[in-house]
Amino acid sequence: MQKETTEKKYQDLRASTMGSLPPSLDLPLPPSGKPPHLQLLSETTLLNLFKSQQNHLNYFFQNLDFSQALSFTQTLLNSRGTIFFSGVGKSGFVASKISQTLVSLDIRSSFLSPLDALHGDIGALSSADVLVLFSKSGSTEELLRLLPCARAKGVYLISVTSFSNNALANACDMNVHLPLERELCPFDLAPVTSNAIQMVFGDTVAIALMGARNLTKEQYAANHPAGRIGKSLIFKVKDVMKKKDELPICKEGDLIMEQLVELSSKGCGCLVVIDDEYHLLGTFTDGDLRRTLIKASGEAIFKLRVGDMCNREPRTIGPDAMAVEAMQKMESPPSPVQFLPVIDHQNVLIGIVTLHGLVSAGL
């Protein structure tokens, strides 16, 4: 039955495209019931590939010369100028990514395209810079053509390769050998394992530089202002809180029934109870209103005042606290809350921060 359904779908597709496909693609469905050239991918096959890649990566870790890695890292750490990275093809993508990682860690770095370098961009190089060249074979023609021009600028040259005794390594001031057992590719050609090794090596060195330079969370966050990481380390409560006319305020002597509009109109799910000098006295929430309706009966509800039912000991926070701290405080035991009154050192209400506001800010 399944075979008949598959064959029907294939024949319908074939019929709908007749006239648009060249004769070479107008093929009958093979006896297996599958489109031509496709094999069934088994879980075992995929698992074996992952295990093989793991073994190839283990070979790299077990055979890496850590003295070379240390010299390389120390050279980058001591650089007085910009650390340039270059490569061709997929090695170029890796080099560009590692450069971007360093920039995000507050380290001067840039990617230098070998082709563009020979058409003017080499002017960015100076004698204070380091140029790191990624190449699996060490025989990449574009990089070899770049070398004499870069050396003429006085830049310090480092090659990162996986083949031994290659032209690129012999022409540079330093070489780092990245041991490669073989590519995961069945033909040992597609650079999947070698690129993975390059990425692991480069990113690990980047984190080593981060530690050696004593980069703080604040410095890291300053380079990621639009992301959640940066927002959690930069945004303070005063940056995301509601203030002035946005605050749902009332007095403790106000009747509850007269404050229902204020309770619902400001989108906070609460009333903040204050005195004439704006000192915080308590909060009255949607939950408090429900409890009031359950307890009160008849006309008594119309006589209840906010001060009779409000929470006199609400959680609060200061304006200079980190916004992420406010979120943690809202979620802390014994039960989560949806808002925090923001007060100064004299218990004066200056704002209110809501969980919705924090989420909207990207925290």
Automatic annotation (TrEMBL):
Entry keyword annotation includes Repeat: yes
Residues the record marks as site: Catalytically relevant: K90, E142, E183, H224
Residue ranges of the region described as Disordered: 1-34
Signal peptide from the UniProt entry: none
UniProtKB keywords: CBS domain, Repeat
PROSITE patterns named in the record: CBS, SIS
Membrane-spanning residues: none
Keyword Repeat: yes
PANTHER family linked: ARABINOSE 5-PHOSPHATE ISOMERASE-RELATED (PTHR47476:SF2), PTHR47476
Protein name, as recorded: SIS domain-containing protein
Originating organism: Gossypium barbadense (Sea Island cotton)
